[in-house]
Amino acid sequence: MLLSIPSTRSMRAISLLYLTSFLVPVLAEPKTCPVNSPLSCSGASGADTCCYNDPGGLILLTQFWDSEPATGPNDSWTIHGLWPDNCDGSWEQYCDKSREYSNMIDIIRTHGQTNLLDYMSTYWKDYQGDDESFWAHEWNKHGTCMSTFETGCYTAYEAQEEVVDYFKKTVELFQGLDTYQILADAGIRPDSSKTYALSELQNAISTTFGRPVTLNCKNSVLNEVWYFYNVRGSALLGEYIPTNPAGSTSTCPSTGIKYLPKGNSPSPPTTTSTSTTPEPTSPGDGDSFSGKGYLQVTTSGSQRGCLISNGKWYTTGTCATYTANKPASGEGFTLTSSKGSCGIVNDAFECGSGVPSGTFTANNGRLSVSSSYEFYADNVPSGTAQLPIYTSRKPTEVTVTWEAL
């Protein structure tokens, strides 16, 4: 029998009971690691990577605060993911194509974790309402790069149990870090009439967490927090020890930060249907990247300009016309503009006469490269500025969609 989901505050109060009852692994146990296993990022040469997260030894729990569109409960942040960064702040991604999946609901239900699925459907939300694709993206991009979740680290391994364990651990960490309540305890609550200094927000969270965190903003609006850990032992059963950030710094200004309320806007529909159909990956299967059209750029649910003919992001000018063509053989499609063919050069999207033609795919209406629909920029361009968009992580995350002509 499925249990109903309590209110946010009562859910927090029973989180330990919930974890004990439902999130303890019920399948074959992962490898037991010695209590004196080396701490990740300690430079332990030759350590057992089932008990030593390597190379992704800097593990981030990332959370969202989406106020527009409002996503998740009004009094809770939501889960973004659990990321294994390298110790210097760089990272790997999509590390095992053989373990990339799209049917996350099926996988979770097959392993009897219906309560976990209910929780994720409330607190692990996609701002466009496609939770299952979001969960698949997080596992495929980040989970497959966690060495202690490799299948060889399990005894009597059962198919996809490491996927469920990744979700369970992410939820467990999230339940232990109620960012909304941490800020509220410091007198910081969502309010459209107030602004905060970065130091106020940082101090409130680091006092509880024990280390500084990375806070991210879009247009001076607080929308993300990254908590950093080193881990002693496996990512599932090991000891998580807070540590200092590395890599990208905060994208928030030093002052004038807004922490906007979610209001009473309804949350996107929770995921309840079972799907075994892979995500669409090419024109003609529901994403319509074909013929002529514009490449629109979206940040956190809001359209902000488009790509011009050289492939750069522009927010005030006229959109360039692109042509999407499906090749004679193979999957995906190519893109061209008046400047020439388009491709990825040094992690940046470019179009020009000397640019090698790249193969792109579509992911639920979003332009995708190597299974990822995330692109990044250093910031949001304004005025006449034109900025490249990248496949490697930068402070501003964007998606690119097709507007057919």
Automatic annotation (TrEMBL):
<dbReference type="InterPro" id="IPR018188">
    <property type="entry name" value="RNase_T2_His_AS_1"/>
</dbReference>
<comment type="function">
    <text>Rnase which modulates cell survival under stress conditions. Released from the vacuole to the cytoplasm during stress to promote tRNA and rRNA cleavage and to activate separately a downstream pathway that promotes cell death. Involved in cell size, vacuolar morphology and growth at high temperatures and high salt concentration.</text>
</comment>
<keyword id="KW-0325">Glycoprotein</keyword>
<feature type="signal peptide">
    <location>
        <begin position="1"/>
        <end position="28"/>
    </location>
</feature>
<dbReference type="GO" id="GO:0033897">
    <property type="term" value="F:ribonuclease T2 activity"/>
</dbReference>
<feature type="compositionally biased region" description="Low complexity">
    <location>
        <begin position="270"/>
        <end position="283"/>
    </location>
</feature>
<feature type="active site">
    <location>
        <position position="80"/>
    </location>
</feature>
<dbReference type="InterPro" id="IPR036430">
    <property type="entry name" value="RNase_T2-like_sf"/>
</dbReference>
<feature type="domain" description="RNase T2-like C-terminal">
    <location>
        <begin position="288"/>
        <end position="403"/>
    </location>
</feature>
<dbReference type="GO" id="GO:0016787">
    <property type="term" value="F:hydrolase activity"/>
</dbReference>
<dbReference type="InterPro" id="IPR001568">
    <property type="entry name" value="RNase_T2-like"/>
</dbReference>
<dbReference type="GO" id="GO:0005576">
    <property type="term" value="C:extracellular region"/>
</dbReference>
<keyword id="KW-1015">Disulfide bond</keyword>
<dbReference type="GO" id="GO:0006401">
    <property type="term" value="P:RNA catabolic process"/>
</dbReference>
<dbReference type="GO" id="GO:0005775">
    <property type="term" value="C:vacuolar lumen"/>
</dbReference>
<keyword id="KW-0378">Hydrolase</keyword>
<keyword id="KW-0963">Cytoplasm</keyword>
<feature type="active site">
    <location>
        <position position="138"/>
    </location>
</feature>
<keyword id="KW-0540">Nuclease</keyword>
<keyword id="KW-0255">Endonuclease</keyword>
<dbReference type="InterPro" id="IPR033697">
    <property type="entry name" value="Ribonuclease_T2_eukaryotic"/>
</dbReference>
<dbReference type="InterPro" id="IPR057328">
    <property type="entry name" value="RNaseT2L_C"/>
</dbReference>
<dbReference type="Pfam" id="PF25488">
    <property type="entry name" value="RNaseT2L_C"/>
</dbReference>
<comment type="similarity">
    <text>Belongs to the RNase T2 family.</text>
</comment>
<feature type="active site">
    <location>
        <position position="142"/>
    </location>
</feature>
<keyword id="KW-0926">Vacuole</keyword>
<dbReference type="Pfam" id="PF00445">
    <property type="entry name" value="Ribonuclease_T2"/>
</dbReference>
<dbReference type="GO" id="GO:0003723">
    <property type="term" value="F:RNA binding"/>
</dbReference>
<keyword id="KW-0456">Lyase</keyword>
<feature type="region of interest" description="Disordered">
    <location>
        <begin position="257"/>
        <end position="294"/>
    </location>
</feature>
<keyword id="KW-0732">Signal</keyword>
<protein>
    <recommendedName>
        <fullName>Ribonuclease T2-like</fullName>
        <ecNumber>4.6.1.19</ecNumber>
    </recommendedName>
</protein>
<dbReference type="InterPro" id="IPR033130">
    <property type="entry name" value="RNase_T2_His_AS_2"/>
</dbReference>
